[in-house]
Amino acid sequence: MLELKKILKRKDSMIMLALSLWALMLSVLNVIFPDVFSIEANAKMGAFDFLYLMIIIQDLVFLPVLIMVYSASLTFYSEIDKKQIYMYKDTNRRKTLNQKYLATYGLYLIYLILYILISILSYYLIINKMEFASGTFFTIKEDILSQLYEIIQVVLGIIFYINIGIFFALRYPSGVSIFLTTLLYMFLKIAPLVETISYLIPIGYRSIEINTIDDFWKYILISLIIFSIYNIFVYVINFKKFKSMEFR
Fold first, then answer.
1. How far, rounded to the nearest angstrom, does the alpha carbon of residue 151 sit from its chain's CA centroid?
2. Residue pLDDT, tens place only, 66-105
3. CA-to-CA distance for 14 and 154, rounded, in angstroms?
4. Under a CB-based contact definition with an 8 Å cutoff, are residues 192 and 207 in contact?
């Protein structure tokens, strides 16, 4: 908790949390410029459809990930470089690393909760007054599973990129960490085009078509296994690096 409180006091955290207002800003913009949301004729948008759209936009923009990588760099590289971390022989380094991990992910969790709540509130307060709004939470029941599935995949992907960001942040300053994470992001966006590769990477299961509840749970389970393998592997490497570092 102390580590999270320290992170929340920084300017980068304030910027990150300010991004949770993205849906509200787009909603207000749509009032001024009605063509912001391109909706097909006779199509209706429910609150969940709007939330789904906002989550997809979050993924496409990639800005939250870049800020999280920058935040990780301040939490790890800057504190190590400026010798702000005190380590003694009896200090539990795994506990220290875990605290920093949890604080970094804690910032994203707070952002995500705010993002979801503000998206839903923006729909009912602003978007609901538009002609294309259905006024209901769900519109087309057949789309719920596929939309929920993709939302989960986006969140898992962002968590993975944050872990990769921590990997770079333990070794390089913020600019290099952001650049390398962006390169990886671009590569992983292209990689799923090769079908055999797509099933071997953490974000390769997004494009799978979900038609039934069995499909949903099957591919959620498989993607979680792939996600866990990669993230545990990266965490183990990060711990070995952190353990070998010299502190004052």
1. 10
2. 998 888 888 887 766 666 565 555 567 788 888 889 999 9
3. 22
4. yes
Nearest CA to 106 out of 235, 20, 4, 228 is that of: 4
- Kindly report the length of the chain: 248
Return the pLDDT at 218.
Answer: 92
Alpha-carbon gap, residue 229 to 106, rounded angstroms:
21
| Distance from C-alpha of 2 to C-alpha of 6, rounded to nearest angstrom | 6
3-state secondary structure of 120: helix
Q: Are 181 and 70 in contact (CB under 8 A)?
A: no
How is 181-248 classified by DSSP, letter by letter?
HHHHHHHHHHGGGSHHHHTTSTTTTTT----SHHHHHHHHHHHHHHHHHHHHHHHHHHHHHHHH----
Q: What is the pLDDT of residues 20-43, one digit of tens each?
A: 998 998 888 878 876 666 665 566
Q: At what angle do helices 47-61 and 93-125 cross, to 10 degrees?
A: 130
